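Lab notebook page, bench 4
Experiment: in silico fold of construct C2
Operator: M.H.
Input chain length: 171 residues
Purpose: comparison with the prior construct
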Amino acid sequence: MGWAASQHTHTLRRLLLLLVGALLSCSACMTRVADPSETGGASGVSRPSEGAGEPTAPSEMTNEPPAPAPLGWCDAQPVLARKCLRCHGEPPANGAPFALALYVDTQVVDARGKPRYERMRQAIESDLMPARFVTLEPPVEPLDERERADLLDWLGAGAPQGAAEACPETP
């Protein structure tokens, strides 16, 4: 390849890189339309979003949905009421060592400095709780997948109170 052809190839590569860079920087102001009914039939067509310009939220830059709001006491309390308060009510019954009826019950710190919600998380992760080994009528029910996931998310986040004043203490 001669000198002129080499320069031509080099120039084409630079132009291609500039074009790719321009397209990538422009993709932040474009949204992907997956529903053919929205585009008049063509699926996967990109079009400018309303108010195109600099994205205002990280989710707009990555095209990912916004993170869900963290769970709070109002989300955890109904699960605790259905599956835990039978034993961890006020007063505790069936050999349970403490109540979980109120938000403050989940925040108690033990003699070792460990918050109760961490103990709760460990008991759920290890399937120790709900205590299906206790013989009761009707039998103790396990947490379903959603209940387990919600409680573990809430407990793993430090059992935040959230807008607890907006929810009843017991359902």
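Observations: The beta strands are 30-33, 45-48. The first strand starts at residue 30 and ends at 33.
Next step: discuss at group meeting.
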